[in-house]
Design a protein that fits this description.
The complex is a heterodimer of chains A (325) and B (465).
Chain A (H helix, E strand, L loop, with lengths): L1 H14 L12 H9 L16 H22 L4 H26 L5 E4 L7 H20 L1 H19 L11 H4 L5 E6 L16 E6 L10 E5 L19 E5 L11 E3 L4 E3 L6 E3 L5 E4 L8 E2 L1 E3 L5 E4 L16
Antiparallel strand pairs in A: 2-3, 2-12, 3-4, 4-5, 5-10, 6-7, 7-8, 8-9, 11-12
Helix pairs in contact in A: 3-4
Chain B lengths: L16 H13 L2 H8 L2 E2 L6 H21 L8 E3 L11 E3 H11 L4 H28 L8 H22 L5 H15 L5 H9 L8 H31 L13 E6 H26 L5 H4 L18 H9 L5 E3 L2 E3 L3 H26 L15 H20 L2 H8 L3 H34 L19
Helix pairs in contact in B: 3-5, 3-10, 4-5, 5-6, 5-10, 6-9, 6-13, 7-8, 12-13, 12-14, 14-16
Classes of the chains: A alpha+beta (325), B mainly alpha (465).
Chain lengths: 325, 465
């Protein structure tokens, strides 16, 4: 291992040898000899392993780059130029320092004793004894000790209560959405939707009127071919003009299920590739999702616009502990 | 000013300036002896000992660039209309947070380079920590007396991951919003407390208006403060223990062989700091990263396909993707699917990581202190287990990009998922067998003369003198 390090040092010195005060020739063997005969005192001139031209050039480059950086900045700034100038300014100092260390500084190996880490058994025992002597006071006042611990504990519990202010009791948005019987469906710009607005095989993202952008209520309207859909039992009249509506929130991890493959009648979630069979109640057919996308019952109002006739068939989005309660 | 000269300096006129000021401080603090010990400390020389340093220096760059960014970033989810100089988004409704990131990127001089250097530094920070953990693991540097520092280091890794995620979630672009949403789904999956934790964290339902200001204070104060404190502890314990070293060159369990801190090691370490910073500036200047203006502002009903998290979250993304569609219902209560890949797997991962020094000591019955490092080949079982673990997480990492791989190579996502599910079980076993074989082969080539580092210690309690 140490040989590798030394060889590396030699290589660097060789590679940037500027022919200056190069005494040792920076060959591996030479370095080895110096090390082995114990030369290592700071300032030992036999330690010089290369010229000072290369580190000097590095420092100079750094100065030039720093000036260039100031010029780039004051003339309006340009991200690539700034990055490169910064890199040269910093890298010049870095290379200069490393070369300096490798060429002119004592290289070792130096040896240091580790000394012991743990204390002596006597010290350890003395500590335990002192601690126990002092601690015995608590033991003798057992009643007081218990009360004090009780007080600290009670205070700790009381201090937890402000955390409750961080958020409301969970649940409202997890189990219900703004959809009710008669709520109109609108586009993300707030326009009402007619049953033939989605082209066959096409998809529209809809929201309940008055709640555009509501994360829980985002809905996919998909228009299928007549007879393509196998309605789930009890949902035979939940579609209008072959338009079926499902929650757009993936039941796996909540991403919008955005990709519809019309040919296979499948919805694909772009996050974790859960796939839902639109023709059969949006049941999951691939990926990590376990529950179907909840379906929204559709109807039309007197003006012929799409409305919901109730809330989704179940809680939308990812699962949670008491989702079935 | 001459009459007011401090009497401390009387008689010191002959000393050098450094000598005089050093004496001034030492007369007040009495630290000369400690200081000299520090100057003369020995650091062993090996390339692999640089990995932790690179993590440290990346963190310094993170602090410097991060402080700069806070002067411009506005951690608010209040809506505003973008009217900066990036034409495609002019007039678009965005959050203050996203708006300020666009301003920082397009209208603050040197803002973009700082932001990109910051992001690259975060990537390098975590990468250097991970490789450093691997070095410590494979060389057995976690063994007694370094178990505490292993635990501190594991905590630093957890904090680095958490702070990285918090950081890139602040920008309120489509990608980070999707990440927060997935994180919320994972939180919701926690049995009993999940919905409460989610509600308290988000101040209600996702996305709400609170999460970015809250992640911001985590990202710029709480987590960095914890990292700074633990870094100080980590380095303090390192100095207390003195660094491990490899066998050879007269290295024993009782000494440290290497270079003195002053001046050689200090100069080299300083050089490595500047080189690390230089590399990060080069990356930040030349290689665009996280171009949030292309992702657009976060909108709940949108998601961009081929969304990819930062690399160090990739294994979690992969585990979520590969998890089969299973979940458990107990007495009507649900343990949802994301719990297993998103909570249980990382929980077990980090518990095993934390406990490894004790697991190994118990398995090998080796409770003795060790300051000489193992060569991985000399510990074939540990090496094989480590390689298997790495293989497991590499498969998860790759599986986090199934969609990208499918598009790039024209493959079916479903087939890829099944391939990765199989690989996840098969590859670690194969990798372990291969690593074990390789270790034995390398040792055979070393010949019988190569002594294995001594492990047994007659007096385990206080063996170092």
């Amino acid at each position: 291992m140490a040989d590798e390090v030394r060889a590396e040092g030699g290589d660097v010195a060789d590679g940037v040898d500027e022919g200056g005060v190069d005494e040792g020739g920076a060959k591996e063997g030479g370095v080895d000899d110096r090390r082995d005969d114990g030369a290592g005192a700071p300032g030992d001139p036999t330690q010089v392993r290369g010229g000072q031209t290369a580190p000097a050039v590095a420092f100079l480059a750094s100065i030039v780059a720093a000036i260039a950086l100031a010029v780039v900045y004051s003339t309006g700034g340009q991200v690539q130029a700034e990055g490169v100038a910064l890199a040269i300014a910093l890298g010049g100092i870095g290379i200069g320092l490393v070369l300096w260390a490798k060429r002119f500084m004592p290289e070792g190996p130096d040896v240091e004793s580790r000394g012991r880490i743990g204390s002596t058994p006597e010290d350890q025992q003395a500590f335990v004894k002192d601690f126990a002597t002092g601690g015995a006071t608590f033991g003798r006042r057992n009643f007081l000790t218990k009360l004090m611990l009780g007080a600290v504990g009670a205070l700790g519990l009381a201090a937890l209560f402000p955390i409750r202010s961080l958020g409301p009791r969970p649940g409202r948005g997890l189990k219900s959405t703004p959809y009710r019987d008669g709520v109109r469906l609108v586009t993300d710009t707030g326009d009402p939707i007619r049953p033939d607005d989605p082209g066959v095989g096409g998809v529209i993202t809809a929201f309940p009127e008055g709640n555009v952008g509501d994360e829980t209520a985002q809905t996919l309207l998909i228009r299928l071919l007549p007879g393509q859909l196998n309605p789930q039992p009890g949902r035979e009249d939940w579609t209008v003009n072959n338009v079926v509506a499902y929650s757009k929130v993936c039941t796996h991890a909540g991403c919008p299920v955005g990709l519809f493959e019309a040919q296979r009648g499948e919805l694909l979630c772009p996050c974790h590739q859960s796939t839902f069979d639109v023709l059969n109640g949006a049941t999951p057919v691939f990926g990590p999702a376990t529950r179907p996308l909840p379906q929204l019952p559709l109807g039309t109002d007197d003006d012929g616009n799409l409305i919901a006739t109730g809330d989704f068939s179940g809680p939308i989005g990812p699962g949670f502990w008491d989702i079935n309660k | 000013m001459t009459p007011r000269r401090s009497h401390d300096e009387r008689g010191d006129e002959k000393g050098s300036r450094v000598g005089r000021s050093a004496r001034w401080f030492d007369d007040r603090l009495g630290v000369a002896r400690t200081g000299r010990t520090l100057l003369d400390k020995i650091f062993p020389n090996h390339w692999s000992f640089l990995l932790g340093e690179i993590a440290l220096y990346s963190f310094v760059v993170l602090l410097a660039t991060g402080v700069y960014l806070t002067f411009f970033f506005d951690a608010s989810m209040a809506p505003t209309t973008y009217d900066g100089s990036y034409a495609p988004l002019q007039g678009v409704q965005v959050s203050q947070a996203y708006n300020s990131v666009l301003d920082l990127s397009f209208d603050v001089r040197a803002g973009l380079v700082m932001r990109q250097v910051h992001h690259w530094a975060a990537l390098l920070f975590v990468a250097a920590i991970v490789v450093h953990v691997c070095r410590v693991f494979f060389t057995g540097a976690f063994r007694r007396p370094r178990e505490i520092n292993w635990v501190v280091g594991c905590t630093l890794l957890v904090l680095a991951l958490g702070n990285g995620f918090a950081g890139y979630s602040l920008l309120d672009d489509q990608l980070s919003g999707t990440g927060i949403r997935i994180a919320d789904s994972v939180i919701l999956s926690i049995p009993v407390a999940g919905t409460w934790i989610s509600s308290l964290l988000f101040g209600g339902d996702f996305p709400g208006t609170q999460i970015i200001p809250r992640l911001f204070i985590l990202h710029v104060l709480l987590l960095p403060a914890a990292i700074v404190i633990l870094l100080a502890v980590h380095l303090g314990i390192l100095i207390r223990h003195k660094h491990t070293h490899f066998a050879g060159e007269g290295a024993t369990e009782d000494n440290v062989v290497g270079e003195r801190v002053w001046p050689t090691y200090a100069a080299k370490a300083g050089g490595v700091f500047f080189l690390t910073a230089a590399l990060l500036c080069l990356l930040g200047g030349l290689f665009q990263i996280n171009p949030v203006w292309l992702f657009g502002p976060f909108e709940v009903a949108n998601v961009s396909s081929a969304s990819q998290p930062d690399w160090y979250i990739g294994w979690l993304e992969g585990s979520l993707r590969l998890m089969p569609p299973w979940e458990i219902t107990i007495f009507g209560y649900l343990i949802p699917n994301p719990f297993f890949p998103g909570v249980l797997l990382p929980g077990v991962t980090f518990m095993l990581l934390y406990a490894w020094p004790w697991i190994e000591a118990r398995a090998t019955k080796d409770y003795a202190p060790h300051h000489i490092l193992d060569r991985p080949r000399d510990r074939p079982v540990r090496t094989a287990l480590g390689v298997a673990t790495l293989a497991f997480y590499v498969v998860l990492f790759a599986a986090g990009a199934t969609d990208v791989l499918a598009v790039t190579f024209g493959l079916s996502v479903n087939r890829l998922v099944w391939t990765f599910r199989t690989l996840l079980l098969v590859l670690p076993v194969g990798a372990a067998i291969a690593a074990n074989r390789l270790c034995h082969e390398l040792r055979r080539r070393d010949g019988p003369a190569e002594p294995v580092a001594p492990v047994d210690d007659p007096e385990p309690a206080f063996s170092t003198r």
